[in-house]
């Protein structure tokens, strides 16, 4: 029995996140922030590569909320990194 498009999407995302964890581990640079950012990029690529041409299913419309939460998390990581770089007393 063939998998539904939703299951294919989930399998592709899990596989990409496992690949990200493996590559970061092999490069000895595994951190939560880096894993989150690279997994978010993989998620956005996965969303674009599996986008339907004509009709958008309801489950794909809900991905917008996940993308929004991911981008807010990315903004948080960027702000934290900028605050680490700035010398004390600038803000």
Automatic annotation (TrEMBL):
Q: Which InterPro entries match?
A: DUF8044
Lineage, uppermost ranks: Archaea, Methanobacteriati, Methanobacteriota, Stenosarchaea group, Halobacteria
Q: Which residues cross the membrane?
A: 63-83
Q: What's one Pfam family the UniProt record gives for this protein?
A: DUF8044
Q: Which UniProt keywords apply?
A: Membrane, Transmembrane, Transmembrane helix
Q: Which domain of life is it from?
A: Archaea
Organism the protein comes from: Halogeometricum borinquense
Protein name per its UniProtKB record: Uncharacterized protein
């Amino acid at each position: 029995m063939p998998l539904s498009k939703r299951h294919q999407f989930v399998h592709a995302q899990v596989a990409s996140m496992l690949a990200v964890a493996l590559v970061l581990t092999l490069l000895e640079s595994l951190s939560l922030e880096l894993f989150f950012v690279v997994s978010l990029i993989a998620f956005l690529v996965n969303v674009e590569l599996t986008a339907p041409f004509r009709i958008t299913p309801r489950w794909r419309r809900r991905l917008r909320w996940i993308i929004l939460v991911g981008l807010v998390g990315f903004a948080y990581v960027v702000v934290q990194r900028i605050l680490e770089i700035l010398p004390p007393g600038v803000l």
